Amino acid sequence: MQALDRKLIRDFQRLWAQALAIALVLACGVAILQTSVGMSRALEDTRAAYYERNRFADIFAEARRVPLSLISEIEAIEGVWAVEPRITGDAVLDIPGRVETAMGNIISVPQTGMSRLNVPILRSGRMPDPEAIDEVAVNEPFAIANGFRPGDIFFANLNGQKRPLTITGTVLSPEFIYTIGPGALLPDNKGFGILWMSERATAAAFDMTGAFNSVSLKLTASARPDVVIDALDDLLDPYGGLGAHDRSLQQSDAFVEAEIAQQRSMALILPPIFFAISAFLVNMVVGRIIQLERSEIGLLKAIGYSDAEICFHYLLLAGLIALAGILIGWCVGDWLSRSVSRQYAQFFDFPFLVYHTSYAAFIISGSIGLATAIIGAARSALQAARLAPAVAMLPPAPPHFKRSILDRLLSALRISQPTMMILRSFLRWPVRAAFTSLGLSLAVAVLIAASFIGDSLDEIIDSAFYQSNRQDAMLLFAEDLPESALEDIRRLPGILQLEGQQYGAAILRNGHLTKRIAIEARRPDPDLSRVVGDRGQTLNAPDEGILLSTRLADHLQVTTGDMIEAEFLSGKRGTYQISVAGTVTQFFGLGAYMDLGALNRLFHQSPQISVANATLDEGQTEALHAAMKEIPKLTGTVMLTTSRRSFQETISRNVLIMSTIYTTIALLITFGVAYNGARIQLSERARELASLRILGFGRAEVSYILMGETMALALIAQPLGWLFGSGIAYAMTSDFSSDLYSMPLILKPATFAVASLVVLGAAFLSSLLVRRRIDRLDLVTVMKTRE
Amino acid sequence: MPEMVFRTKHVSKIYDTGEVKVFALDGVDLELFAGELAVLLGPSGSGKSTLLNILGGLDHATSGRVWFRDLELTDLSDRGLTRYRRDHVGFVFQFYNLVPSLTARENVQLVTDVAATPMAPAEALDLVGLGHRLDHFPAEMSGGEQQRVAIARAIAKRPEVLLCDEPTGALDSKTGVQVLEALRHINEAFGTTTAVITHNAAIRKMAHRVVMFQDGKISDVLINETRLMPSEIVW
User: Fold this and answer.
1) Kind of pairing, strands B21-33 and B4-16?
2) What's the rounded Cα separation, in Å, for the pair A290 and A683?
3) Nearest-CB residue to B99 (from A296, A307, A388)
4) Burial, A123: exposed, middle or buried (Cβ in 10 Å; 0-12, 13-18, 19+)?
5) B119-176 pLDDT, tens digit each
6) In this structure, what CATH number is given to the domain that contains residue B127?
7) B98 Cα to chain A: minimum distance (Å)
8) Structural domains counted in chain A
9) Which position among A23, A119, A403, A464 has the lowest Cβ density within 10 Å, counted as fewest Cβ atoms?
10) Could you tell me the residue range of the domain that residue A445 belongs to?
11) How many domains does chain B have?
12) Burial per residue of A258-271, b for 16 or more beta-carbon CB atoms within 10 angstroms, e otherwise
């Protein structure tokens, strides 16, 4: 081994603590990049393989009742490769041993026993017999959650008839990678299941013999989806078509796609912060080393080492630091990427996981990590190479301090000399001080960005569950019932308060802009389900016209007073012109609200309801559920008490995981910046501090100078961090906003306070680690050492 | 007539600080011969180190010309000077300039790694009487020992010239003598042209020739008819 390489390795060993502090920050960037890339690829590959193997459809459509004879016409649409008609319907399930009712989505299995599209994968048992009328296969997560095995029996309320159903097997389907029941915010595998039933049985149950109400299409490679959708809509329209759509509106695929997109954007947002901080730290440390080794550089040049060799020597040092960071990052990233992908495969119901070790992810994250360190070291290394040997051998000139107006100001303020030393050093090395503060402020920002999400979600939960939806349960009906039906329901056991509500599936249009939504209609001044704005205000739908959420109004580009076209897809179908009576800003959904009376006047019918909202007497829950399982028109119930609990549990678990990760990240950044900063100061000031000790300054006074500088920079970093944190939080709220919800920007004083305390505490501990070295300072040796 | 190794012609070096011009060297003409041990004597700031730096290829003259044998150093590029230092020159400095993270042997190896026909590091250290301290780090050695490692490092490449800038400046008289003995030994055993800068007048007695510096100029050149052994020198 060459002597210069030995020097390199020993230098690296000597610098291990500083190198580690940098390597950990770099490792964060590498690991996050690798995890995001690895996971989004694993999700994409798994989804692609699953869709391919199980022939996941491209176009989906629902209708009221379509004769089977229409299939040949659908097949004739240009670009259609395969058509799969089927019958679907919802049912209230009565699961033995479960108090609450569950909901089931029933899907017919073709008489041949073989689906052409959206082919289910049998996980246990067998598919239902095509001739049997009381057999179902259920989705595996539903079976696992309820402890079902093939052969078990539960009951279903099928179109008014309660029937026992025998489970023949469990399956997974590409249509239900993410399963979420109607009205639910999160998957509830216990309370919502997918049931595959023979076509004969389904047709009989839903009165669909010779007809279908759902169709999936697979297209040829060259087909144009929008053209096919239009053609299919035209064909289904006379039969109550609800509008065909592509995969982007297929619930399960949309959720998976959103997750993949989030992973990809994660790879773009976070790692650059870590790489930038690492580059700055490498720059600071290598710069200082070169300053210390001036005479050695002069010597190497005197001996005959070339500029390039010397430059390369210091770049190698940066390279070693990078290597340590990259290796740590690779190990953590690979482990995280594998284990989180496995968790995703479970969270999403994939039958298998396609995980290829992404060598590209290794190479990309490694190259960026290495480039970061090299860029960080480049300026100093080039300076070392350019040092004239004769100059390098001379001791460096003492740093140039000048008296400025600020100095006169400080003198006037009678600031102590040690404080003056701290302040002068900022003026002498303003760039370094600025970057150190900047680095620490990013740590503060990361913490603010992490903790504001919890507060924002709290606000959303409060608005959704405690302000808008105050009912304990929602009873969903198969079809609209006259408002008078509420009187029958009121007689059920345990019902304390009851209000009806009507939903109308509709397409709203303004010129070429359209949106499929559900219009909610209520009586004025409801107590249970209310329209609530983002400032907590409650509103009533106007007597005439429609009230739109701001997000929906923006999408349709309409304002109060404009007319929009509403095409109702359910109930009394028809297209009507409605005036926009007002808009309301909300966190959730694309709300559109009408007065119950006004909507039914439009249809020329007596008021109808499709949902009943109720508050319940907890003592009578069991009796109520038992009674509900016998009501023929009921297709399901949503227990908001359960949703609230599970939603809050999931949210607080996720928030906890996230704040742990972000706090670790912030601590690593703080340690990396503060520790290295303090080490460099100590190295620069060793003689100065030793002189002060010799002059009679105590350890505490000398420590004040060393730690004071770090802590002063940390203090300056706070307002900056608050600003960056608020900026990142703002960017996140607009980034996370979707059709589904928008995130309020809730920044509480406590969020800022906690972030600052964590960073100041970590900075204090980091500089305390360096401070211990002052105790070990050998005053005589330090004074003898030539700079 | 011995072969000429260095020749300078009207060499000047001016440090321009913007406000004042400082003449570190002012028209110096000097010749150094093969196998010669020359002592460059003068007070601080008289220009001897500046001349040594120019002879060693560490610095350029502001004006005038410098030759090493037939090679003119005056207009050599940075790359050319690096090549020249690597192939021909050995340096010894007042503050040893050892790399603290390398052992004695490894410090010498720094040179042997890049030299064309070097001797083994152990052999070089043997020559300066440090054969038994090969694996010690600088911090584990006395000042005299460290300076002898620096000499070993300078001679390991078998240089034609050895340029020493105050080699005993940081040492006491006893250890200084050991270092001078090593220099004399190398000069005699290998015929290495050696130039020693000092402001210690006692050292001049071991030289073949003494070049006196004053205010950036050569004020006098003396030839020692009888040279003293280093052990006879006291300061």
Assistant:
1) antiparallel
2) 12
3) A296
4) middle
5) 999 999 998 889 999 989 888 898 889 988 998 998 898 899 999 988 888 788 888 8
6) 3.40.50.300
7) 7
8) 3
9) A403
10) 429-470+641-787
11) 1
12) ebbeebeebbeebb
